[in-house]
Amino acid sequence: MNKAIISNITQTKNGIETEKVQKRKKWIKYLQQHSYHINISRNGKQQIIKWTKNIRISKATVDNIISDNTW
């Protein structure tokens, strides 16, 4: 054990990236390529914010929504 090993845990002792780092990079690349950007107007954003401030949902309703896996 030495400081170099502890400070650079993304590589093996031979300087090769670990499998987990490689998989994480692939996952990030996939997410970036498949991201969905929503274009919404300023007015639309304000309406959503207003709605979230005024809406009240019971715990039972939230539990039902979470447990419903058909959507």
Describe it.
This protein has one domain (3-67). By secondary structure, the protein is mainly α. The chain has helices at 3-7, 19-33, 42-54, 59-67.
Beta fraction of the residues? under 5%
Please give the number of β-strands.
0
Average pLDDT confidence is 88
Helix-strand string? HHHH
Instruction: Enumerate how many helices there are, as a single number.
Output: 4
Radius of gyration over C-alpha positions, nearest whole angstrom: 22 Å
**Helix share of residues?**
55-70%
Tally of individual domains: 1
What's a concise summary of this model?
By secondary structure, the protein is mainly α.
Lay out the secondary structure.
Blueprint lengths: L2 H5 L11 H15 L8 H13 L4 H9 L4
Please tag this protein with its features.
71 residues; mainly alpha; 0% strand
